[in-house]
């Protein structure tokens, strides 16, 4: 496995372990605001820890945005996506192992930080609300990432800008879908959470990928990119 793939695996592990772990293990104590901060801090940690190796995409939708914008070689895309999914599944497995040590924990009752919508899930928003939120939020998220990492962006601040953006997205959307904006983040917990999470997983794969694709296409066309920026691999 290449160093980039290892970095993506570990970085995505950090994202899911911090974010979903905060929801499962501390959610009752820290609430939605605390979970939002945990997701944001996870990106900051992974970006500064592994960004120099792989770019710290941590998310197939982000990798798709880089691919479509011309800033990622096609041969790296599949490798990144596989590593991201493996990292997310591994983190969900560790969270499940830890949570299972609590006497009153059951995955059916307490969940594993999986995404969802409809009756019985957080604010019980409709499928259309969930689809709209995930597409728009991912589009905005990937647009910020592409802008913050272009060649003429202020040096050293990308990880902070991206982490704060993810925290802000969570403050808006946790009650709607639990916030995916990342197919790998959704796949990890869904593998263990059961039929409902798996049955709704399509939305948390397709909507973020669509948002990332549109963001990448606009950036690649120069619409959301500084005219002085040079494409980066």
Automatic annotation (TrEMBL):
Localisation per UniProt entry: Cell membrane
Protein name in UniProt: Aquaporin Z
Underlying gene: aqpZ
Family assignment from sequence similarity: Belongs to the MIP/aquaporin (TC 1.A.8) family.
Membrane topology reported for the UniProt record: Multi-pass membrane protein
Transmembrane segments: 7-26, 32-56, 77-99, 125-148, 155-177, 197-218
Origin superkingdom: Bacteria
Pfam families: MIP (PF00230)
Keywords from the UniProt entry: Cell membrane, Membrane, Transmembrane, Transmembrane helix
């Amino acid at each position: 496995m290449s160093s980039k793939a290892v970095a993506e695996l570990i970085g995505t592990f950090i994202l899911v372990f911090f974010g979903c772990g905060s929801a499962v293990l501390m959610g009752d104590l820290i609430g939605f605001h605390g979970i939002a901060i945990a997701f944001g801090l996870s990106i900051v940690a992974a970006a500064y820890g592994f960004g120099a190796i792989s770019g710290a995409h941590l998310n197939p939708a982000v990798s798709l945005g880089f691919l479509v914008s011309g800033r990622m070689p096609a041969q790296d895309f599949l490798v990144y996506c596989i590593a991201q999914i493996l990292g997310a599944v591994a983190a969900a497995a560790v969270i499940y192992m830890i949570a299972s040590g609590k006497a009153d924990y059951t995955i059916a009752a307490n969940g594993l930080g999986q995404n969802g919508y409809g009756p019985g899930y957080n604010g019980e928003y409709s499928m259309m609300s969930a689809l709209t939120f995930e597409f728009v939020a991912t589009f905005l998220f990937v647009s910020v990432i592409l802008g913050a990492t272009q060649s003429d962006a202020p040096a050293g601040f990308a990880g902070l800008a991206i982490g704060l953006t993810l925290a802000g997205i969570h403050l808006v959307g946790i009650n709607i879908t639990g916030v995916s904006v990342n197919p790998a983040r959704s796949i990890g917990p869904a593998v263990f959470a059961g039929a409902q999470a798996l049955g709704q997983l399509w939305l948390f794969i397709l909507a973020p990928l669509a948002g990332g694709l549109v963001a990448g296409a606009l950036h690649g066309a120069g619409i959301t990119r500084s005219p002085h920026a040079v494409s980066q691999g």
